[in-house]
Amino acid sequence: MGDKSVLISLKDRWWNKILSGEKAEEIRKTMPRQIEAEYDGDTAHFSPALQVFVYLSGTGHVVGHFNCDKIKHWDSAHAEWAYSVGPIPGVSCIMPMSDTDAFERMRKKGCLTDEQIMDYFGDEDFKAYFWSVLNPTEYETPIPLSDFGLNRPPQSWCYTEYTEPRNQPGND
Q1: How far is CA 95 from the centre of its chain?
Q2: 129 and 28 in contact (C-beta within 8 Å)?
Q3: Rounded to the nearest 10 degrees, how much is the dihedral formed by the CA atoms of 57, 30, 42, 72?
Q4: What is the distance between the alpha carbons of residues 97 and 82, in angstroms, rounded to a whole number?
Q5: First vs last Cα of the chain: how many Å apart?
Q6: Angle at 75 between CA 74 and CA 80, to 5 degrees
Q7: How far, rounded to the nearest angstrom, does the alpha carbon of residue 110 sit from its chain's CA centroid?
Q8: Which domains are delineated in the chain?
Q9: From CA 41, how far away is CA 168, in angstroms rounded?
Q10: What is the pLDDT of residues 75-103, one digit of tens each?
Q11: Does the global pTM surpass 0.70?
């Protein structure tokens, strides 16, 4: 699996919310599976934290990074089924996050409106991944996308072997 990191595409407004601390989670339709993680129910824990480089849409540059120590998974179909049949009295089990809790989390920690959630995921059953956002760092000098070996940015995210900023002074 090597020392992989992730490069994610973000629009300026989302990056600014991350930098300000307003946005504590990045909400995505998928998550990295080729990076070693420990699983606890519906949560993947990364140790050390996954380094997520941020490509700012339309700039041609990576403008910073953040660390992600866990990604929580939510499946609307599974949650709907689980709450229709359980919990069963006297049986110990971990229930998935409810629809209400998932949408509230997307609104509060992901800074999304209900309309943005529906536009992104649609109104059918869907899976959402809540990427934790820790220690966001904006670079004084943006890094050209070509330094990551890419001609064009990922539509959502991609793996990268580029890890240099982790080792620079002042970066985690």
Answers
A1: 22
A2: yes
A3: 0
A4: 10
A5: 21
A6: 115
A7: 10
A8: 5-167 (2.30.130.30)
A9: 35
A10: 765 444 444 444 445 544 444 566 677 77
A11: yes
